[in-house]
Design goal:
By secondary structure, the chain is an alpha/beta fold. The chain contains 14 helices and 15 strands. The termini are far apart.
Length: 424
Amino acid sequence: MQKILIVDDEIIMQKIASKILSKEYEVICASSGEEAIELFENEKPDMVLSDLLMPEMDGYKLHRILQEKSSNSVPIMFMTADESDESESHGFEIGAADYIRKPLKADILLRRVANILDNLDKIQDLKQAAEVDPMTGLLNKIAATRELEKICATANGALIMLDLDSFKLVNDIYGHPQGDKILIKFAELLKNITRESDLLGRMGGDEFIAFCHDIKSEEIIAEKTKYLNEKLFEAAKIFMGEKFNIPLGVSVGAIFVPNFGTDFQTLYKKMDKALYKVKQNGKHGYSIYSEEENFGAQENFSDINQILGERVTPHGAYFLELEQFKLIYREMFRIITAYKKDCQFVTLTVNTENESILEELGELLKNNLRVSDCITQGGKNKFFILLPETKSAEIQYMIMKLSAKIKATKNLSQYKISFDSKSL
């Protein structure tokens, strides 16, 4: 029920107004401006109905003070026995919502109050529409950024960026309506693992952001990441059928606040670095930002291993950017030259430059090769693969196995794929 604060130094007028309005609204009363200010701060009314001429503090001054104390504009309606037009004009000039003369007529007062509160609801609805992402119901980028700037400046907790893996493939293969279902479901899953006091936002596309108050544990971030990946893939199978095999999931980058600052934009850039590490290290996992300059300050092996080691259990081959792949290739060449080890280098070429097809092919390779193998996209339609501890005689079997997997994949079977291999 909406709440109205009635302010009048005449008790009889308080009772009359209260009797009229209490049938449809919750009513609280004050006998002076000072008392009204105190009630306003404690009760947070939706509207104020105030006498215009009161001793010590008149309605004009009360209105100004209340607007200063409120982050949102609270409507005020003046009531007075003054018959002149000047007081009415002045009331509207300073922002009064309406003006009613005494003695009060019940039907007129109720109608005018209802109009004011209806307009207030419409304004709030418009404000909410401007701040909320219509698909997911989370804050949109502008609103989330504004709120996070305030939160990061004062709060303790975890700032978290979440990016869906292989979501573009869902849109390309199953269509945008199914992709929308995934986004809506993911927003629901985020709400399941956060509290009402936490902040959730959609930054655009398949990128989301969250601030979880008072979280400082890596284990909690790990649990949330695991839950989101498991439940999201389960939902995708329900939406698109049990044969759904796109590696849909979520990568998570996090940073603890205020450990690395209180400026949101600075924290966002650092958090983005953590997310990038996950994207380059198999996806479907999490990374928490840490200052790499502190590596040398670690005093024991377990501390060093916690920072240098992989934060998620490796799955499939190691998919790298080309520059990173070059470093691995050069190091592998040194090792096999020095220790006479076996290592094979394979080039895969496909007759398409379609990005979604190449992404699906890359995921297939990653999921069907060993954890010790390395892959990169070496051109618009090529993949390079490093196979350590692999003999030349084993290559044909590996190629046959991959070819069979590709032919069995609906979206890839129509494309011509060729392999070329050599020993390092």
